[in-house]
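Structure (tokenized):
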């Protein structure tokens, strides 16, 4: 995916009110200090990661947590600083309409080749400044998908862990969970394998005597 940036016409910076006039073309519209950033509709692997992770986290989330796909967030309540992470986890009771104005417990961004710098540098700084405790960056691949976990520490993110392909990614934030990156993208029975162990697996047949 490519990211197109454009400055608003007229005076002043763009705000979320201006986004209501953008075309409904499946793209993701965000604002970086009043500057419009447009990301085209995601490719299949990107969408698969989002869907599987939303399903998996939604099934694991304890009472009091909510998993949100593609939520709009006004950073620091500023309508000219509007981000839409691929996924977020919030505590119930911290909703805001029409857009989130308080930091989620977790945000997740799924990388595309053209979004790597933005997601790993610019958004890393923005999300840390907003006070989001946990940030996951997922690099999807049909060969070796990777998950990177960052945690807020002293106002900046600290790299906590990296899980690649068949590694087990285990964390306590925002709630205890385990996942195997391969099963965010690979074909096959991902629901049985994503937690690091197969479920519903048939027992092997007994070997024949003699």
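Design, position by position:
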């Amino acid at each position: 995916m490519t990211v197109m940036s454009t400055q608003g016409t007229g005076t002043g910076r763009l705000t979320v009110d201006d986004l209501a006039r953008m075309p409904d073309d499946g793209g993701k519209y965000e604002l970086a200090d009043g500057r419009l950033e447009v990301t085209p509709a995601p490719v299949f692997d990107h969408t698969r990661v989002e869907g599987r992770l939303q399903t998996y986290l939604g099934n694991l989330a304890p009472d009091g947590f909510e998993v949100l796909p593609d939520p709009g967030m006004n950073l620091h309540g500023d309508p000219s600083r509007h981000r839409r992470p691929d996924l977020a986890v919030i505590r119930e009771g911290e909703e805001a309409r029409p857009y989130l104005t308080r930091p989620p417990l977790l945000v997740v961004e799924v990388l595309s080749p053209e979004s790597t710098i933005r997601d790993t540098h610019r958004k890393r700084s923005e999300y840390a400044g907003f006070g989001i405790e946990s940030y996951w960056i997922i690099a999807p691949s049909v060969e070796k998908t990777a998950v990177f976990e960052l945690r807020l520490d002293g106002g900046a993110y600290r790299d906590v862990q990296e899980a690649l392909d068949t590694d087990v990614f285990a964390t306590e934030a925002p709630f205890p969970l385990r996942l195997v990156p391969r099963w965010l993208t690979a074909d096959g029975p991902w629901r049985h394998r994503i937690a690091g162990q197969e479920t519903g697996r048939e027992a092997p047949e007994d070997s024949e005597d003699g």
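Reviewer-requested clarification: Residues 1-11, 200-210 have pLDDT under 50 and may be disordered. Residues 44-60 form the longest helix (17 residues).
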